[in-house]
Design a protein that fits this description.
Layout: H1 2-22, H2 29-44, H3 48-54, H4 56-60, H5 62-67, H6 70-75, H7 77-82, H8 84-108, H9 113-119, H10 126-135, H11 140-164, H12 170-192, H13 194-228
Helix pairs in contact: 1-2, 8-12, 8-13, 10-11, 10-13, 11-12, 12-13
């Protein structure tokens, strides 16, 4: 068990170092580390279930890690209160667009229903996306993969979009990164500054909360439409 946890930590740290040094998108630790770990586990002949069982406490830590994002929000609470209206409208709109656009594209390329429900929660943070996926009949493992891909792509492409659109304000940068790329986006927002990290954390948390409130009703309704057609 300790060996698996140590291997996971070491591989992740090496991947993070490589990404920090070369900034190559495929070296992003959320992409590179899993690939390297899969290769190591396969070459060692270790059953995947054994690795999952030994490292499951790391998955359980996702919840507390997500809660920790509330710290910068509390630190800058007066600023958050000042822009609360803008924040709520932006995040609610972003949540709706994320689900509807994912559903529309999935229907366009004729994905199977179980695949669609698994990727619809992709724009919220992993621990909550997993629970939403279970609630609506999705495959949590598949949901996790798409959440990670969404985060990595958003974390890499997001700064490019911010530069291309000449976005200057901390609130716009933070909300965009947190809404589009949840945890990975918030991590990137920290590179910009404390205010960006605060609004990104808020976007990530509120997006998950809003999706929990109405997403579990909207998603089944969309799937009924898909089934009808």
């Amino acid at each position: 068990m300790i060996l698996f946890i140590a291997a996971t930590y070491i591989v992740y740290r090496l991947a993070k170092t490589a990404y920090s040094k070369w900034k190559f998108p495929l070296f992003h630790p959320l992409l590179l580390a899993p690939v390297v770990l899969i290769l190591i586990i396969s070459m060692a002949g270790v059953p995947a279930n054994d690795y999952l069982e030994a490292s499951k406490w790391l998955t359980h830590m996702l919840g507390p890690a997500t809660v920790a994002f509330a710290i910068p929000i509390y630190k800058h609470l007066p600023l958050v209160k000042k822009y609360m209206g803008t924040i709520l409208v932006s995040i609610t709109t972003g949540s709706v667009v994320a689900i509807l656009s994912t559903f529309g594209l999935s229907e366009l390329i004729h994905l199977k229903n179980d695949f669609i429900v698994s990727i619809l929660p992709r724009s919220i943070t992993t621990p909550i996306a997993i629970e939403v996926s279970k609630e609506i009949g999705g495959l949590p493992t598949l949901t996790t993969v798409f959440v990670i891909l969404t985060g990595v792509i958003g974390g890499v492409v997001g700064p490019m979009v911010i530069r291309a659109l000449s976005i200057k304000t901390p609130i716009a940068k933070g909300l965009a990164l947190g809404m589009a790329a949840h945890g990975a986006g918030t991590n990137k927002a920290m590179d910009y500054g404390e205010h960006e990290a605060t609004f990104s954390s808020l976007a990530m948390i509120f997006a998950a909360w809003i999706t929990l409130l109405w997403g579990v009703s909207l998603i089944p309704a969309l799937m009924n439409i898909a089934h009808f057609h």
